[in-house]
Write a structure and sequence with these properties.
The chain is mostly helical. It is 66% helix and 0% strand. The protein contains eleven helices and no strands.
């Protein structure tokens, strides 16, 4: 799941350090894609600092949400449905349809949460801003990330840009997907293909809109209480 979908499960969580911990796995990967951190293997390193412990709990919730989501029938069925719908977009494109359908499904869920008012984006950014940066630095170093400069530069840009507000428009979802694909493939889509992709995504959104909250309800019912 993507940033806002993970935040949905923390919408009533007032612990800003746990909230940033919940999205920290994705933040780290976006900042430094070659970083592989496994804090849950060394839990004892974080127990002396309550802020770091909150971040660890958030990290663990992130992994559990992703585990439930990716093993669900919803994920399997809907990824395949979206893949079939967007296949016409891929003519002469190097992009793998399943890859785009996987990421596309997650971004559309973020989009729906946004336009339906299920998450409050200003609150999301407020939590990130208020998290304890000294503890975050220590947390990352305890994970084995010796130089945290690149990460904190990314985090500052991520917060200041307020980029997730753009998810309210479907053409920006297509743009985001194209940017992600550009990390892996040169010239993934033409402008014509991107326009077609936006049309297909709009059609898919309309198809899942009546029942999309079912997967969030299922995951929430399987998560342990926050406190």
């Amino acid at each position: 799941m993507n940033f806002l979908s993970h935040f949905y499960f923390e919408r009533d969580n007032y612990d800003e350090n746990m909230v940033i911990g919940v999205i920290l796995p994705d933040l780290v990967k976006n900042a430094q894609k070659d970083s592989n951190l496994y804090p849950l293997k060394e839990k004892h390193l974080f127990e002396a600092d309550e802020h770091q412990l909150s971040m660890l709990k958030g990290w663990e919730r992130h992994l559990e949400v992703d585990r439930i989501f990716h093993s669900s029938e919803f994920f399997k069925t809907e990824t395949n449905a979206l893949k079939q719908l967007i296949l016409p977009v891929f003519e002469n494109s190097p992009v793998k349809p399943f890859f785009l359908a996987h990421i596309g499904l997650e971004l559309i869920l973020d989009h729906l949460l946004t336009v339906k008012g299920k998450v409050n984006i200003p609150t999301f950014y407020e939590h990130l801003s208020q998290s304890d940066k000294a503890s975050l630095d220590a947390f990352l170093k305890n994970c084995g990330l010796r130089d945290t400069t690149v990460f904190f530069n990314f985090l500052e840009r991520f917060i200041s840009s307020r980029y997730l507000f753009s998810y309210q428009k479907m053409e920006n979802i297509s743009y985001a997907l194209n940017r992600i694909c550009m990390r892996l493939w040169e010239n993934p889509f033409t402008e014509t293909q991107l326009a077609m992709l936006t049309e297909k995504l709009e059609a898919y959104k309309a198809a899942i809109e009546p029942d999309y909250m079912g997967i969030f309800d299922r995951i929430e019912g399987m998560l342990p209480p926050l406190f």
